[in-house]
């Protein structure tokens, strides 16, 4: 039993952020155009996409949006016709931005609050992988004060400090039974903090093309004194001391982005972004428990992720002075190597399509809506630690809405 329990605790997926947890929902205009925005001047979401562009914005902004995320995954165990589905749960990534500076001046100040990482998954307690995961709810909320400076009419720079507030709530079954044959239960719940930065540069070329380069740093997030709650038969309680806590640290990866804006006519805007996510910093997942027993030991679990790339493109058409139509799409590679796929985010190479529209409700008030469909390629895997073996098929549906007031 000791080996089984040590092994299960070593797998703890609570913090194993993968490409699947990088939600990329920081602005409705940008979502509608395939998540492009590094090389564009659009709205206050430049705080996230490229702080260097903020000083070039012709107006000040206050805006907020939400993008309810519906994650649907099915697991087919190897050698079986059984199928296990995630429950219908809706995550709520959000964003808020405020950008201000004197009109026609050389600087602007901004603040962003957004959720670049997060996930909500619930497989229930009756599926084959219940000893790996039953449910997971995690969020990483970034708070970013930002300053941008216009160096010349054609170039501006900017940067901001990032403070991260992370939370996790995970449940899984333990392969020990009570007198009624019910599995034991483990729940890990806690919050953590981390620090980083975001900086960018924005250019206007003589040919009319705009170019942006942005770098978002790694954010080391540490959870201290998280609650480790175990529900087991009274005869086993001494092996799982209560109350108990854990400490863990995980690096949320840095991202380098290059973006372009093209303007073939007054009504058309085209954009392309390339994003390189430095997931290779994530080598190991380790947990330190405040109270150990012969059964409950500190854990050390390899992850060995690789860097990932996403290619994005989008377009906007100004149908009138008030109505704007948007469309886009992209392709992203997985960060998770074969043998390391886990059910909290059964990651795989993926493609997605987006659409959206913007409407001017008033001269200073904009309404933007978006929709995204994301398909992860089918992936058949045997996890090298849990030996959970089968095929994951996953689809993601994301509507979104925002309001922006500008002056």
TrEMBL record:
> One GO CC annotation, please?
cell outer membrane
Quote the Pfam families the UniProt record gives.
Answer: Toluene_X
Q: Which domain of life is it from?
A: Bacteria
Extract the InterPro entries matched here.
OMPP1/FadL/TodX
Keywords in alphabetical order: Cell outer membrane, Membrane, Signal, Transmembrane, Transmembrane beta strand
As for membrane topology, the entry says: Multi-pass membrane protein
Among its keywords, does the record have Signal?
yes
Q: What Gene3D superfamilies does this protein's entry cite?
A: Outer membrane protein transport protein (OMPP1/FadL/TodX)
Q: Which N-terminal residues, if any, form the signal peptide?
A: 1-18
What family is this? Belongs to the OmpP1/FadL family.
Give the main location: membrane
> What name does UniProt use for this protein?
Long-chain fatty acid transport protein
**Any one GO molecular function term:** long-chain fatty acid transporting porin activity
Transmembrane helix: is it a keyword of this entry? no
Q: Where, subcellularly, is it found?
A: Cell outer membrane
């Amino acid at each position: 039993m000791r080996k089984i329990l040590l092994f299960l605790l070593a797998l703890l997926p609570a913090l194993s952020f993968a490409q699947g947890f990088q939600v990329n929902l920081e602005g409705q205009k940008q979502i509608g155009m395939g998540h492009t925005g590094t090389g564009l001047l659009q709205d206050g979401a430049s705080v996230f996409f490229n702080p260097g562009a903020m000083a070039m914005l012709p107006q000040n902004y206050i805006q907020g949006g939400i993008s309810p995320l519906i994650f649907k995954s099915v697991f087919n165990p190897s050698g079986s016709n059984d199928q296990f589905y995630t429950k219908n749960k809706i995550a709520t990534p959000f964003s808020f931005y405020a950008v201000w500076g004197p009109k026609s001046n050389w600087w602007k100040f901004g603040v962003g609050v957004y959720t670049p990482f997060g996930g909500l998954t619930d497989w229930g307690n009756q599926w084959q992988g219940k000893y790996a995961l039953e449910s997971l709810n995690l969020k990483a909320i970034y708070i970013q004060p930002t300053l941008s400076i216009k160096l010349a009419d054609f170039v501006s720079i900017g940067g901001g400090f990032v403070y991260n507030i992370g939370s996790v709530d995970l449940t899984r079954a333990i392969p020990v039974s009570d007198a009624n044959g019910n599995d034991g239960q483990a729940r890990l719940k806690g919050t953590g903090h981390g620090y980083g930065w975001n900086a960018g540069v924005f250019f206007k070329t003589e040919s009319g093309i705009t170019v942006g380069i942005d770098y978002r740093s790694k954010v080391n997030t540490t959870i201290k004194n998280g609650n480790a709650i175990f529900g087991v038969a009274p005869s086993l309680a001494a092996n799982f001391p209560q109350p108990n806590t854990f400490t863990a640290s995980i690096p949320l990866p840095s991202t380098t982005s290059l973006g372009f804006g093209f303007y073939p006519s007054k009504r058309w805007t085209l954009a392309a972004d390339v994003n390189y996510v430095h997931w290779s910093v994530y080598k190991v997942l380790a947990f330190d428990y405040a109270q150990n027993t012969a059964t409950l030991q500190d854990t050390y679990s390899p992850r060995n992720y690789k860097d990932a790339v996403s290619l994005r493109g989008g377009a906007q058409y100004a149908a009138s002075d008030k109505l704007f139509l948007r469309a886009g799409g992209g392709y992203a590679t997985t960060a998770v190597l074969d043998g390391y796929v886990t059910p909290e985010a059964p990651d795989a190479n993926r493609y997605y399509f987006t659409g959206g529209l913007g409407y001017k409700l008033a001269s200073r008030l904009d309404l933007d809506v978006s929709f995204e469909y994301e398909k992860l390629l089918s992936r058949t895997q045997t996890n090298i630690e849990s030996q959970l073996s089968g095929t994951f098929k996953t689809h993601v549906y994301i509507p979104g809405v925002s309001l922006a007031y500008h002056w």
